[in-house]
Amino acid sequence: MRVFLVRREGDGLVPANPRDTLPKAAYDVVGLLENLPWLDQVVSCNEQAGVGSPLLRHEDANSQFEFDFAYADS
Asked: Which of 62, 32, 43, 41 is nearest to 1 (CA)?
């Protein structure tokens, strides 16, 4: 699952973290760590729901994050 964390500014949307402005933000560790508090909450909720989050990373765009879910046999 990919999500963008944004906030409204004027008539548009901007990254929720004003420092998340790298031109190529893929796999940015600083962007990931600065967003860790809310990311940790999402991972905890995924674990409680039984889907887990074995992979979590900052994705290509500013304020874009990816969560992978645990899988099992059908």
From this structure: 43
* Cβ-contact 65, 53 below 8 angstroms: no
Angle (CA) 47-67-16 rounded to 5° is 110
Q: What is the pLDDT of residue 48?
A: 92
pTM of the predicted protein model? 0.77
Q: What residues pair up with 8 in beta bridges, in sequence order? A: 13
Residue 6: in which H helix or E strand, if any?
A: strand 6-9
Nearest Cα to 1, choosing from 74, 56, 72, 62?
56
Tokens of 53: 């989050």
Residue type, 12: G
Question: What are the residue ranges spanned by the domains of the chain?
Answer: 2-68
